[in-house]
Amino acid sequence: MSIPFTTAFHHMPTPAFIAQIQSGEIVAANERLESLYLNVGAARQETWQSLVNDDQSSLADIVNKLNRGQVERISARLEVGDRFLTAEISLTELDDEYVLGYISHTEHLDFSVAENTLLKFALTESSAGIWMWEVEGDTISCSQSIASLLGCSLEDTPHNSQAWRSRVHKDDLPKMQRTVDEHIQHKQRYYESEYRIRRGNDEYTWVRERGRTYSQGPNAEVVKIIGFIEDISSQKALEEHLRSQATFDELTGLLNRGAALTHFTKQLGLARRQYTPLTMAKIDLDARGLLADMPLEQRNTAIHTSARFIYKKIREADILARVAQDKLLLLLPNTSLKDAQKLINSFLQPNDEEQKVLEFSDASHLNLCVGLATFPEDGETIEELAQSANSAVEKGRTEGVAVFIAE
Predict the structure, then answer these.
(1) Which of 73, 92, 196, 260 is the most exposed place for a label (fewest CB within 10 A)?
(2) Domains, the chain, ranges and CATH?
(3) How far apart are CA 305 and CA 321, in angstroms?
(4) Closest by CA position to 302, among listed 286, 284, 323, 319
């Protein structure tokens, strides 16, 4: 080490060490790390494995994960004399042989101090408060401003995930929980979720939650998450007003449910007055359940690609709408059941170029299932036709049939 580096290393304000990557041997420790052990009359650990109190931990493996962007800091329980210290270890590779590590202690994170630093301003001036979640022990620490947002005392803020989720509106909970679970399962860096949360007066307010992985274990598993929530109730009120006037689905660009109902009703009236055939198709984009385990962004891409693939196949007079997360409704005016089957079969036989596009987006024509219902045999109203088509697609999915006709 050069003299300036050596001086800076030994006078770092946090405990730090230099270790040999392959062997895990700690070849140097600064004054703060030495003092940590001397103050309790204990000998300093000599290897990475003994430092983190884990014989199975490989420093070389962790450095590889660090270089691949899979980890930023490692959470560990340091054995210091007769006590254990919960700490985070950040690593920086010095060269091919050595790594610099420095230790930060977050066991007693003071949110009242954190909220008075530039951290709060850097996040956003509208941020309501900061929280930290220790995943393994399922312990949540909240700032005072979260207590203010929830209209309760700091002691009554949620202290674990179950208590937090008990405050989330039942209609928003599945999506929120899935987003967080996917973040942990796929060892992601960031996530964002919007939902309604119950305040102390039992009223709900819309919030945006943003979380970031703070520390990870030796296998890149998420150990701690830090983040904040902000009140977005006024923004949601505006969005709701705009949504009520909207026509198109944001993800796919297709008609939404409300707009589709207007068009469907008009076409049904024409078919009734002119005695022309009309067929409705319910399309399940995930009949084989291939999308269920995908991360949210990947799943949305697959849904978008599948929907656009079908849209390009339909005729100008046909009406296609997205009516649920992975469900579409297709209305085929002046179309008999026989002609509808021919059109639907074209969806299930993509050409080579279409196949490549689907596969690139993790979508597949083999994941589609279609249920058909005709007017007036299977229903005389839009609601009756939709119910018949839905029953047909459910039976087709159960029996593994790509196209199923209402009985």
Answers:
(1) 92
(2) 3-105 (3.30.450.20), 111-237 (3.30.450.20), 246-405 (3.30.70.270)
(3) 14
(4) 286
Q: Which phi-psi region, left, alpha or beta, contains residue 338 (left: φ > 0; alpha: ψ -120 to 50)?
A: alpha
3-state SS of the chain is CCHHHHHHHHCCCCCEEEEECCCCEEEEECHHHHHHHHCCCCCCCCEHHHHCCCCCCCHHHHHHHHHCCCCCEEEEEEEECCEEEEEEEEEEECCCCEEEEEEEECCCCCHHHHCCCHHHHHHCCCCCEEEEEECCCCEEEECHHHHHHHCCCHHHCCCCHHHHHCCECCCCHHHHHHHHHHHHHCCCCEEEEEEEEECCCCCEEEEEEEEEEEEECCCCCEEEEEEEEEECHHHHHHHHHHHHHCCECCCCCCECHHHHHHHHHHHHHHHHHHCCCEEEEEEECCCCCCCCCCCHHHHHHHHHHHHHHHHCCCCCCCEEEEEECCEEEEEEECCCHHHHHHHHHHHCCCCHHHHHHHHHCCCCHHHCEEEEEEECCCCCCHHHHHHHHHHHHHHHHHHCCCEEECC
Q: Which residue has the higher pLDDT, 247 or 196?
A: 196
Q: Give 190-243 pLDDT, tens digit per residue.
A: 899 999 999 999 999 999 998 988 888 888 889 889 888 888 888 888 777 666
